């Protein structure tokens, strides 16, 4: 009887001759094929880690209408203007519709080739015939293979399309960008394995009623995943915002109670954001707590700490909190700004102009330090702010930026006093 080995069966895979790709000394490997090539869109290059790597497959996911097609049409046109041949495959719109959008955003170039196809075999034939330097597939959920059962966008179809396109990309060193839609819960539509097959997964986010769009990399084999790209979407197209902080700050000509500025970190990028609060007497037994751009549970915690530790009367008040320009503040570093804005509105006393507040509020009323305080303060100083309130010990002996006076606070009472808000409130809390 034949010995089948300890596994209970003989292995089916046998060794083959690696003639096509023999092993070579590592110092003789050509690294030029792994270098990123800039796309011409700085904000996109920032997220990708320098640009598109030959043979890389990038999945750009986002809700319908967020601007994915507009962004990639602009990227395709910029690549075409540098002499590279670009193939843009649209499965959602007709070629004429894409042509109209390209004319509106000035993305017309003879090197940009456009085709409207939904059959995978035909798409692969276009790749063979055109031999492009860049492929954009819009979108992967609309392409289907006649050799696989199921409708376009199904699990089996998406897996087959992705595998075929990835194989073509790797064999030709062809950078490919796939557009993918997301479901209601924010995950990429289709099988979860799609995200594991591609090299880079980017999320394109933005509120429908806001012009601001943010691009984040959730997976990147060629670069960091903590960078964020900011874009401005308008009727004339989409443009990168190298300095987006101005979008998040109101243009009020005089100081208004209930507003406080903070510096958040989106990845490694500091952004100055204005937090606005309106505290008003409630006409209902259960006061309202309404937020826009702010985590509601975080606000509830900060209000509870203010009432318990500072004695601020908020239990019978409606509290509305919002950010400017569609910014989303989810990190604890904005807690102090939330607290000062609420106290400022409650007491109807404006905060001094040129002030930013950075810090996390603990349940005991203490102000805790957060990461990247130096970068946050440098951004505040660059934008002309003159005063900052930070947690005690946050600078750790470092010199603050020139022109910026840094005040430290160990707890909410000291922070309220440093901000010039009702010093008697802080002293009464300290005597409890």
Automatic annotation (TrEMBL):
ATP binds at residues 62-69. GO terms for biological process: recombinational repair. Residues 1-26 are annotated as: Disordered. A motif (RadA KNRFG motif) lies at residues 219-223. Residues 318-432 are annotated as: Lon-protease-like. Keywords: ATP-binding, DNA damage, DNA repair, DNA-binding, Hydrolase, Metal-binding, Nucleotide-binding, Stress response, Zinc, Zinc-finger. Residues 33-182 form the RecA family profile domain. One of its GO terms (molecular function) is ATP binding. The middle region has homology to RecA with ATPase motifs including the RadA KNRFG motif, while the C-terminus is homologous to Lon protease. Belongs to the RecA family. RadA subfamily. HAMAP family: RadA_bact. This is DNA repair protein RadA. It comes from Cellulomonas terrae. The gene is radA.
């Amino acid at each position: 009887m034949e010995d089948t080995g300890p596994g209970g069966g003989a292995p089916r895979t046998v060794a083959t001759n690696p003639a096509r790709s023999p092993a070579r000394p590592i110092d003789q490997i050509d690294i030029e094929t792994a270098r990123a090539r800039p796309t011409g869109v700085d904000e996109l290059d920032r997220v990708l880690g320098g640009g598109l790597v030959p043979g890389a497959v990038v999945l750009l996911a986002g809700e319908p209408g967020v601007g994915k097609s507009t962004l990639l049409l602009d990227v395709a046109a910029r690549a075409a203007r540098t002499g590279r041949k670009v193939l843009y495959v649209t499965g959602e719109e007709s070629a004429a519709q894409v042509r109209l959008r390209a004319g509106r955003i000035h993305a017309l170039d003879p090197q940009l080739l456009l085709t409207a196809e939904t059959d995978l075999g035909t798409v692969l034939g276009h790749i063979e015939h055109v031999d492009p330097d860049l492929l954009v597939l819009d979108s992967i959920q609309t392409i289907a293979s006649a050799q696989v059962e199921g409708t376009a966008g199904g699990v089996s179809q998406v897996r087959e399309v992705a595998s075929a396109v990835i194989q073509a990309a790797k064999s030709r060193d062809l950078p490919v960008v796939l557009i993918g839609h997301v479901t209601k819960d924010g995950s990429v539509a289709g099988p979860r394995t799609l995200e594991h097959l591609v090299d880079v997964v980017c999320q394109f986010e933005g509120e429908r009623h806001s012009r601001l769009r943010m691009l984040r990399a959730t997976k990147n084999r060629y670069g960091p995943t903590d960078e964020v790209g900011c874009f401005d979407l308008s009727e004339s197209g989409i443009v990168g915002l190298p300095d987006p902080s101005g979008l998040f700050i109101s243009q009020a000509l005089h100081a208004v109670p209930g507003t406080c500025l903070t510096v958040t970190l989106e990845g490694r990028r500091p952004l100055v954001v204005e937090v606005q609060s309106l505290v008003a007497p409630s006409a209902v037994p259960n006061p309202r707590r309404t937020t826009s751009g702010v985590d509601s549970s975080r606000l509830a915690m900060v209000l509870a700490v203010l009432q318990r530790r500072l004695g601020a009367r908020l239990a019978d008040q409606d509290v509305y909190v919002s950010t400017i320009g569609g910014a989303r503040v989810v990190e604890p570093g904005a807690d102090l700004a939330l607290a000062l804005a609420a106290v400022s509105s409650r007491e109807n006393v404006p905060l001094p102009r040129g002030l930013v507040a950075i810090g996390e509020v603990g349940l005991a009323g203490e102000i805790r330090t957060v990461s990247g305080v130096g970068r946050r303060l440098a951004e505040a100083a660059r934008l002309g702010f003159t005063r900052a309130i930070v947690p005690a010990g946050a600078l750790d002996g470092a010199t603050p930026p020139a022109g910026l006076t840094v005040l430290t606070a160990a707890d909410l009472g000291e922070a309220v006093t440093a901000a010039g808000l009702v010093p008697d409130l802080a002293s009464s809390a300290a005597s409890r």
